[in-house]
Design goal:
Helix content is 36%, strand content 16%. The chain has 282 residues and is of the alpha/beta class. α4 crosses α6 (162-172) and α7 (193-200) runs parallel beside α8. The termini are close together.
Length: 282
Amino acid sequence: MKLAIDSYCYHRYFGEWYEGLQTDPGSRLTVWDFLDRAQNFKVQGVSLESCFVPFDEPGVVARLRKELDQRGLERVWAWGHPHGLRSGTDDGSAAIDLAKHIAIANQLGAAVMRICAGGRRTRVKDWAEHKSGLIKQLAPLIPVARRHGVVLAIENHIDLLADELLDLLTTLDSEWIGVCLDTANNLRLFEHPVEVTQKLAPWTRATHVKDVVTQRGDPRAFAFWPSVPVGDGLVEVPRILDILRAQNYQGLLAVEIDYLHPSYPDDEAALAKSLAYLRSLL
């Protein structure tokens, strides 16, 4: 397993923050700045959120491939923030965009692409309907993924319970469909992270290594579960890594921080602490 950083850790510096919970940090990063920081942290890989890549720059994909190769960074391409396929209810435009990004992942030399099937706001109440919509959108993309040699890793994005995601995976039944295992997101759905990992580890092709705690308020609300540096929260990360090792997972352990707890004012320090903790476990 290889240490990595997901560029979403710096989402505020890419111009996106959670209204009412976060503020503009007052400065900006480019994807090139992010690669510099990843290299300074001496990680082995990155997960790149496509929404933060400046596609208006001529030749950006070729330049990004060159920069990643020169820095020796393994890469996962990440598509779909924030709603992806809208839990199977999209009109088809998202699936077309996803197909385009499968080709981009191939051009970047990414063998795995994290995809978002939906989110907490798009979840469909009836699982049969939810699943049917996703199958209709994902099944035609399997030949596209095969042709480009890119595994589509569906994130548990506070939209799917572990058994639901497992049901979707076994129905699609393809080596080109897997999981991007977020270690904390299903805790936000009141599922135990270790039990979720035990179910999804055989399918895991990418990760978001995240830790969370609780604070006052409604436990069904996103703000109830802020991120903290990995190792400081409720997620039993050592046990999760043991389960992944047992499944011979050899991909990236990509640290992700979303809504950082207000008691941790320094994003960079929180990321550094997370990486140091994971290094101690590896």
